[in-house]
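Fold this sequence, please.
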Amino acid sequence: MVLRHKNFGVSTTINTAASVPSPPVDRTSSGFIIGPIADSVLIIGAPIVALIIAGPLFALPSPNFHVSIRATPADLRQVLIVMFINAHLFLVYFRSHANQKIFHLYPVRFVAVPLVLFAMGVMSPTVLGIAGVIGIWWDLYHSSMQTFGFGRIYDSKQKNDAAAGRSLDYWMNLLVYLGPVLAGAHFVDHLNSCRDTLQPLTTEGSILDELILQRTPDFLLKHQNYLAGAIIALGVPFVLFYVYSYYRLQQNGYQVSWQKVWLMIITTAVSIYCWGFRSFIDAFWVMNFFHALQYFAIVSFAENRNLIQLFRVSRFSYGWALAILWVVSFCLLYGWCSKVFENGTWSTSLLMTTSLMHYWYDGFIWSVKKKQV
């Protein structure tokens, strides 16, 4: 999620009538996006929150979480995280389709493209397979760009030049997310999980099955030690260069945002810890949970006026809370349905379409170049 802004608070494309109440925001706290408590828990400290929740969950015996969904055995912990992930994917539609100012800017992107992609997915397992491959790795890129965006907002809160350190942050965030996955102890599990996920979407013996599910994973598995070594050999010097470069920027007037510093430290530590030392399921749970939590927080805050108008709750003193409750409820309902009906062609195509649209829409809706934030 590329978030750069000027006077971030509420989308400038929204009608901001004085009669519409806003959620309480601490205007005296310099450097925060939402406020000191909300930022500390829902953005900066979100990875730690995810660890605190996941620790007790996965310390309990697995049989305690055995459930049956449509006669299929499942682990309730995995059901809940998939539900939450899919809910946050659906949330983007409240930023795109439910915001009329934004919607009218890109009618083809918001109507024609998802309909065509959904129809192609229903008709062709190959299309679903390709979409699945793209989605898995686009998800990692998208997650890294969300943290990148938060960091750039915190920089702007300190009145720093928008270009200062931008490339450094871009590559640093890619390293923080992709590095531990590719070099971590559970890279093999990650590849095998991808294979299991994509296998039903491909035709046996097809080019997609042969290249994406067989040759490429086998090549990566065979050379994983070299890949890990290369990441470490390049990553460690880059981290040192990153710190030194910001030291030089500070000498030239750059104002350090401690919020950004702690965001990067916590996210990096949790990413390395999860992918390097926790089980694959734990790592998947934690990394996806805190990403989705951050996304719910920022969209609920940035879109509060639009959501208040959408649900017609401006007459209530806490209309913003009611609007957020409605949004979260709708998204969780979608997340639950997507999990319950995940094996159907139609439902799988809808999920793939929503996933790709989420990554794509998020990349341009928040763009400061369009002056939409």
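The CA atoms of residues 147 and 258 lie 15 Å apart. Strands lie at 66-69, 72-75.
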